[in-house]
Amino acid sequence: MSTSTPAWQQSDGSAELRQTVIDRRGLRTDDIAVQIAYCGVCHSDLHAIHGATPHITDGGGLVPGHEFTGTVTATGPAVTRFAVGDPVAVGTLVDSCGECAMCLIGQENYCHLGPVSTYGGKDRVDGTVTKGGYSREYVLRERFAHHLPEALDPAAAAPLMCAGVTMWEPLQAAGVGPGSRVAIAGLGGLGHLGVKLAAALGAEVTVLSRTADKADDARALGAEELLLTTDDDQMRRARGRFDLILDTISADHDLSPLLRLLDLDGTLSVLGNPLLTGPRLLELTMGRKRLTSSGTGGMKGTSAMLAFCAAHGIAADIELLPSKRVNEALARLEDGDVRYRFVLDMSDLA
Fold this sequence. Notes:
The two termini are 21 Å apart. Helix 4 packs across helix 5. Strand 11 (204-209), helix 6 and strand 12 form a beta-alpha-beta unit. Helix content is 23%, strand content 27%. It has two domains: 3-161 and 316-348, Quinone Oxidoreductase, Chain A, domain 1; 163-293, 3-Layer(aba) Sandwich (Rossmann fold). It is an alpha/beta fold. It catalyses: a primary alcohol + NADP(+) = an aldehyde + NADPH + H(+).
């Protein structure tokens, strides 16, 4: 039997979210019900609200939110990994086929039949459109939930489920460790976690920024320095310096200056705006450079990221707001007015 829960939902094509009541499905055999405590506000939520992500379906009223923590309140009869009262964390995926090559290696985010996103996806059983974590309750398959490590603050840990694993996967793919030279382009919700993770992995980390106003923050987060991309002399001296650049910039921008900063066989991973058009191929040719991207993470990688963050005391730097201020958070995020991630306290949804 389905249940009702309060949520912040988009309607009538407006960018403003309004409080309403939505239905959650009744528990299937391998489902858990979660009372959401904290939900992060991702730039992808803005893209979805503005209709810039065609793979997201509004389903008659978009409810964003795909990085949240909470507590298990009920379990289906086949659930074995969780019990009522367990603290959990949920990210961008809530289902996949479980049988394709990607699912079998723990990369459910690349499921050949298409993963089911936490909001705006289509349920594999009944075809209904998923509604996200800007709500008080959520129901999902236990396989797509994670135990929240006791060492992590549940509010600051919520953004790890999207922003954190989005940074973690390319760092792991590149084999980053001691001696690696990593640059983070943009010091926002994604970038600040990229700095923390890369530094904890032992890399030499540099922040790339258009302005110097975050230089102190960059060093406090673990970077050795901030390089001004608007300073031609600094950019010229840094040519060929980095093994990996994580590009977290959400605005449209030219990739060519970043590619010139890569060493032989270096990699530029575009994570903040995957809709960007690519550079001239000559920029890749000069130095056997690689241009890649990444889409959040699978269950295996997310679990490893959570364990690493717990062991190294890594979580997001957040501004915690009651959920009733969700529209303020979205407006400020669009203006870049946050250091570094908004998290909504869902306890005010009665």
